[in-house]
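Q: What would this chain look like folded?
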Amino acid sequence: MMVAMSEPPASAPDRDAVDQFALRVWQYKQGEVVSLMVHLGDRLGLYRAMDGAGWLTSAELAARTGLHERWVREWLRGQAAARLVDTDDAAESFALREEGALVLAREQDSLVFAAGAFGGGVAPPAVVDALVEAFRTGVGLTFDELGQVSAHRLARQSGPFARLALVQRVIPALTGVEDRLRAGARVLEVGCGGGRALLALAAAYPDSRFEGLDLSRHAIGDAQRAAAASGLGNVAFRTGRGEELAAGGAYDLVMTLDCLHDMTRPDVVAGAIRGAIRDDGTWLIREIRSSGTWTADRRNPLLAMFYGYSVASCMSSALSEPHGAGLGTLGLPPPAVEELCRAAGFGRVTVHDLDDPANFFYEVAV
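A: My prediction, written as structure tokens:
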């Protein structure tokens, strides 16, 4: 059957139309991530433990299931964000309604039971198995334990920001940084991932030198291959830890872009950055846009995706070593960033809202 097709609009769509379309696409990704959380809830018996129990705190549910409270808390908040469980205004107590129990908990006697259809498809089976174990032990997965595919996916995801916003919008917003980069500066990115941000800067400011540091060998391998393909001679990447930065004030600009909340000890890294940066240098932080309060954050239509990412990657990485901070994806709202920076010895923290729907930018100086 022939279907008449209308001509696409000749003019570019307005901003609202683009934002709505982007939201529609990301909602499909949110569904993918939430499906993994449903599988974990079914497999770990979390829904069954909530069935008929009324209101429970994360500590009470953890005790009922023998699981680690921090992991249960992040999972519960993600379930509340997805509107699969109810919660109070502070996201401290949670309940599974009767209809939720029929669909998610009662495999033996409910014709509408559906949780068994969710197999954790967003992650490879070995990663899903490791996440199940993490709920029991409290110890998360390192970034490399998520696999090469995860590193490559994150590098691609960071590409548009690096190519189209970092040089054009973010750097000009920082006091004196653009002039210093043009004149020749030394720049370090801690948690550089696949290196797309540094490659964009290295191309834009050929008189400056750029260094990328990351704990992930998968990410550094990707960054080194991209650097070789670019032909740029003023950028280099190496594996290493932010906690081990040498003191001495060598850097004019240090960047941590969407990675502080993933670190096991962001406080120690912040202190090391203070020692590595010049007294007149700048620390650029990019962190997830969050208010730090449940009532405000729940207005985010993609909140369930952020909590799902937290369980599957961000909080997991931040709990992958003993005494890890375990901040989670939403764990560094502006007051927490300012407290972290001041405790490390920085005196000025300026928040920049640069029309990025997912992130705030922080200009930090001594």
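Residues 169 and 354 are 8 Å apart (CA to CA).
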